[in-house]
Amino acid sequence: MAETTTPVRALGLICSLKRSPDESSSALIAEDVFKTMRGEGAECEAVRCVDYAIAPGIEADMGDGDEWPKIREKVMAADVVLLSTPIWLGHASSVTQRVLERLNADMSTEDDQGRPVMAGKVAIVSVVGNEDGAHKVVADVFQGLNDLGFSIPAQGCTYWNGPAMGSTDYKDIDEVPESVASATAAAARNAMHLARTLRQSDYPPYQ
């Protein structure tokens, strides 16, 4: 168990289809989540997943240039994992699905108490898009994260949807709507609270 005096470590897995340094709404809303977390003393790092060669598969290391192990190392060191995804055709991005499939490699990995290795980690989700589907995307991603053993806090998501069939993105708006800003801050605060709680009192042994 991590020392309660060490900062909470948050990792943002940005599942945009845009490579760095292109602007990304998924990266921007993740940064808005991080602003609240940093205000509470968290150490935050964002990873633009599409910048890495993440091979298809459900193993921890698929070999032959697979760069998922670099990201997995960051996941294993994190207390909070934020998945931030755009909506395409009503679904999370293909990058999001690839990330979930690679996380699946650790579904059966246990700690020395027989617990899922992800059980002590918190997961939250942020979603952006200019089409409907945010609730469905959150539900689908949360189900996968729950299966993997992540703990999901109360109101552990935030999302922004622009006008249906429009061309305005989150990165284009002049001011974040108060309802979105409030949801973003709540998800961040609740994730921090749950992460600290799990540090002090983890789940009981499965053995």
UniProtKB/TrEMBL annotation:
GO terms for molecular function: oxidoreductase activity. Residues 10-152 form the NADPH-dependent FMN reductase-like domain. SUPFAM superfamilies: Flavoproteins. Gene3D superfamilies: 3.40.50.360. It comes from the Bacteria. Pfam families: FMN_red (PF03358). This is Flavodoxin. It comes from Mycolicibacterium duvalii.
